[in-house]
Each structure stands twice: as C-alpha cells, then as structure tokens.
Amino acid sequence: MKKITFVFLSIIIAFTFFSCKPKQKASAGLTADNFLKEYIDTTVRPGDDFFKYSMGKWVKDNPIPETENSWGIWKLVNEETLTRLREINEEAASAKAAKGTNEQKIGDWWYTGMDTAAIESQGIKPLQPELDMISNIKTTADVVIAVASLQTIGVSALCGIYPGQDEMNSAKFVIHLYQGGIGLPDRDYYFDTDGRTKNIREEYVKHVAKMLTMMGQDSTQSKTDAATIMRMETDLAKASRKLADLRDPYANYNKFSVDGVSKLTPSLDWKNFFEVSGVKDIDTVIVGQPEFFKQVEKSLKTESVDNWKTYLRWNLINTFADKLSSNFDKQNFYFYGTVLNGTKAQRPRWKRVLDDEENAMGFMLGQLYVQKYYSPKVKARYDLMVDNVLAAYKERIEKLDWMSDSTKQKAYAKLGTVMKKVGYPDKWRDYSTLEIDRSSYVRNAIRANKWATDFYLAKIGKPVDRTEWEMTPQTWNAYYNPSNNEIVLPAAAFIVPGMPDSLVDDAIMYGYAAGSTIGHEITHGFDDQGSQFDDQGNLKEWWTKEDREKFQQRCQGIINQFNNYVVLDSLHINGDATQGENIADLGGMLIGLDAFKKTDQYKEGKVIGGFTPLQRYFLGFALSWYGHFRDATIAMRVKTDVHSPNFLRVNGPVVNVDDWYTAFNIQPTDKMYVPDSLRVRIW
Fold first, then answer.
1. What is the DSSP string of 615-641?
2. CA 83: distance to chain centroid?
3. Distance CA 34, CA 493 (A)
4. Does residue 672 surpass a pLDDT of 50?
5. Is it true that the peptide bond before 290 is cis, omega within 30 degrees of 0?
C-alpha cells in the first residue's frame, strides 16, 4: 500500500482526481518539458542520493507548515481535495435538503462540526449516556458488557475486535480478536529506554491525568488514576506481539469456536459479549494472539472494578476528545499532535471536520465527488495501464531462474485471477439507515461509528461481496487485499500535482502510477505475506518447499539491506517489519519499468526536458514520494509503520535495479553504488 493503516484499515483522507467540470489546469508555466525542474536539486549527484537529487529542490523550497507533521505530495493534493469537499459541504448545509437524503446528512455533519458555540456549551454532556453506563458498573461481568457496548461505537478498549474474511476460507466472514487496548501507538512505547520514548511515557501519564481532571475529578485522584491506567496498559502491552511478529499470517491465525475462546478467557463471557455487540449466529472466532487474551483474563481477575471503570472512562474520553469542547480538543492535540508528532499548531477546524466526515461516511462524499470531479477518459488510461502491468508481471515470472515450473504455473493462475478495481465502485454504499442531525457533533460521530459496526457485523453468515471497496475514490492511496486477491486503485491515486493528466507523459506516469502504485500493489500478492495466499484468497501454501526456501533467502537480502539504514540519530529501519512494503516497492519499480518498455515513448527514445525516457521513468517513481517529515513523526513511524520513510522508498529499491545505473551512469565511486553481486533480486 502507498500508506494504509486500516482500522482494521483506518482510512486516511487524501486527495483528488481530475474533473471534466471544472477542468484541471497546469500550474502557471508548467509543461511536460519543464515541470521536473520544480523538484530536481542539481547540486546533488543522482548516484550519491537519488531522492535528494530528484526531489531535493522541492523539499528545500517547501518547509513543513506549523499545522502539519509532514509536507509532500500527499498533503499538496489533499489541500485541493479539502477545498472541493468544503464546497460540497457548505452547499449541502444551506440546501435545506429533505431528511434522510445524503445531502441532508452531509450538511448536518458539517453544521454540527463547525458549530463551536454549541460544542463549547455542551462540554462533556454528549457522552453522559456512556459515562452513566460506566458509573453503574458493579461486577466484572458488567465490565465485559460495557466493553462490548463501547466497542460498537468505536471505543477500542481492552482488545481489538473486527469482522473480516476467514483467511483460510475467504468466502466466509467471521469475527477476529486482536491485541489492542493501549493508548500509545505501539507496545514498544511502553518498554523502549531511549530518551525520546521515556519522555513520551512521562508526558502520556501527565496527559491522562489532565484529561481526567477536565472530566471533573480531583487532580490528586486523577494522577493516581493515570498511573493505574499506565500500569494496566503496560500489562496489555507486555503480552502484545512486536510489529514484525504480526507479519506471519499463520502465527496470527488461531481458529476457535465461541465455546473454545470462552475457555481461553473464562472471565469473559463471549456469548454475552457478542450478543451485546449485535453479533448473531456466530460459530467461528479467529484469535490473532492467544497469549494476549490470557493476559486479558488475568487482568479481569486481578484488577478491581473501580480500576476498570477508570480505564473505560479514559478510553471513552480519549476516543472522542477531538470532537468535544476546546479544552479537551487542545489537550488531546498537545499530546497526540505535538508530543508524539512534533506538530506545532492545530489545523483549521474545517479541515478536521472534513477528515472526520471522510472516516464517518466517505463513500457518501465520494459519490458526489465522482459526479463532479471524475473523468471517464482518465479512468480508461489507468484501466489499460493495469492490464499492461499484469502482462509484464507474467513475463517477469516466466523469466525467473530460481522458481520451478510447478510454482510458476500456480503463480500464473493467481496473477490471472487478480481482480482490478480502478477509480470508484460500481455500487455505492447505502447509508439510508445512518441518522445524522444538528443536535450534537459527538452524537453524530457515535451514530456513524455504530452504523459502521452494524454494517460490517451484518456481513457475518452472508456470502462475501467481492465488489465492495474499502477505500474512497477521493483517497490518495491504494491497497491489495489477499483474501479477495484484488488491487484497489482509487481515482485520486493517479494525480500528479499541478499537471493535468493529458500533459503527463508515459515515462513519468509509468514510474509514478505503474511502478509505485499498480506494480507495488500487485507485488503485495507475492510478497512475504501475500505469497502465502492462493488464487482464491485462501491462506494455503501453493509453493514447492524448495521454492519457498529460495524466496525467503531472497527476502532476507532486502531485510538485511533495510536493517542497515539509519533514519534518525541511531534509529534503524526494522527490516523484518517493513519487508513486505520494501519487496513491493522493488517489485513495483521493476514491473512498471517492464511495462513502460512496451510503450512508444520508450521505443522512440525522445528526450524531454533534458531527460531520456528511462531517466524520466525513475524520476516519475521518485515523484510519488516527495516530501518530508518532522523528526518526531519519523521516530513514531519507525516504531509503528510497516512502510519505510519516503526517501528510502526511492533510494532503497533503485540501488537494486540495473537500469537505474544505466540511466544515470552510476559508477562505483558514487555513494549509492552497490556491486551487481550484492543487488537484491526477488521478482
């Protein structure tokens, strides 16, 4: 994925696509001949630091705004998207649309989100029903019921629970139980001893105490409760697996019956839990990390009911703090924005309201957005590009000298059944049962979260709808879903900022789209995780034992390569945790290049703007990742993200690609030069 964090997949709002009305215009004076000059730093040799060479000028000329933790391509176009979505929302808010229509819901969401006077006057009152439920807890059984109820409105207390396809039977939707229940971004934040992480832990405890005090508690009691919460979360974190250990799909797949999982945690009545959650007729539960749930059982037995009430109050307020009155909102931003990410100031409220709306009802927005800003002509270009990349991938598999014919035949079968989804869904999500009104912003968010829970739970026991999308068309991102063997490429994934599609030549676009996005996502079907799923989307070995061993040896090469990269102070990349994305970046670059070599532009060899087609391909790939991050954000992403930092998503793969050396005349004296015998070769 370009950058995905699922909630299961928490979708990040991103950008825009081209429109027929209005038509996208090139930034002033930019043409295919000169637009790369906006990015290239001619003071850097391409063989010394290709990222800085290709994108360094833009980074120098565009410092990170105070309101952002990063600034780059993903943010630039997001600004345009937000402006367009704001127009849609403001029109809806003033339209007096009929109740129950999408326009009414969009307008009322916007109205309540922007009505700061009402938000200030309401304070914490919108959460009173949930606070009363927590206050009325008397027993451990009540704790379990409260957790189940809170989970349905988006409060991820105690553990992670989500409906999804059974990895070994992709035609079936089941409940998954996963480690979770902590307030810091990853389990390592509770144990790492470096100064930066220690400070974050200290600030976190202070933050929790301040939030509890704002809820009306005595400050001394709040400090005691904050320490209790930290201790309880540390116990959960201790039983949680590290980021790299979550990559093994077999190790994180443990099938139980409902009775079986109840034996794992006798203090947690799962039948009752699921009933409260709204789950009916469930016979299968997939437990990701059984040892984590043994700790859940221990905590339920040993922690007092009062401690659980404190923990649940914190989880509730932490979930909705950014939608409450300004004291909660500002304190929440201070910790999660400034302490964790180094961001100096909050983004304007209207942008944050649109971010929330995207997460709450993004496909409702997407339907209106596509109608106004989407060109079928552009979609056709990328439909064809996907076909070209798939054909190039097949040819590359045919030429592999390390894979047996037996495994190749099954690889062809998998490649041949990849479902491509380009632009936008054919069938839009039905939000008719979602109620949005003008009474309370927080209650709108709660209803939206409950609607989403019900939407996914309703899939259990029904045939899997493989036509559905999990990413909106206005999102600059893409994903591969191994259970459906599908690539999903939203319309916004193909935009080049400041340049209409008609002016972007194939060399740039094959690097930018075919390499970094299309080829990348297809390669996820054949990375360390995706390669373990067959053509039907089931977790099932289809490789010979010998081929699997050869593949793992080659993957170890990319693990070793990235383990050696230092990104901040002495902070190294985690090569194990990031291997899937690094394999996909390298594979995507190679497959996209193979597809580009079939185009007329490559064959003609015409120089544009001083660059050959081959050079423009690699510059186009780099274009996908231009931008920079605050140090605090880099430090957090290294601990929590399976993607490498952007500069390594360019410099990491290119050193393994022979054509890059040819394109830029890279010599052994150049800093990035890697001898042929040491270059990683997988796909």
1. HHHHHHHHHTT-EEE-HHHHHHHHHH-
2. 22
3. 23
4. yes
5. no
The residue extents of the domains of the chain are 35-63+375-427+468-678, 68-123+324-373+430-456, 140-303+315-321
Helices (H), 13-72: 50-61
Q: What is the pLDDT of residues 507-562, one digit of tens each?
A: 999 999 999 999 999 999 999 999 999 999 999 999 999 999 999 999 999 999 99
Query: Which overall architecture, per CATH, does domain 35-63+375-427+468-678 show?
Result: 3-Layer(aba) Sandwich (3.40)
Q: Tell me how far apart the alpha carbons of residues 445 and 358 are, in angstroms, rounded to a whole number.
A: 11
**What is each CA distance from 169 to 28, 164, 354, 484, 669, in whole angstroms?**
53, 11, 37, 11, 53
d(CA 590, CA 653): 9
pLDDT score recorded for residue 285:
96
The SS3 assignment for 160 reads strand
Ramachandran category for residue 527: left, alpha or beta (phi over 0 → left; psi -120 to 50 → alpha):
beta
> pLDDT value at position 102?
96
The CATH-assigned architecture of domain 140-303+315-321 is Orthogonal Bundle (1.10)
| CB neighbour class for 267 (10 Å; exposed up to 12, middle 13-18, buried from 19) | middle
Q: Say if residues 269 and 245 touch (Cβ distance below 8 Å).
A: no
189 DSSP assignment: G
2 pLDDT higher than 60:
no
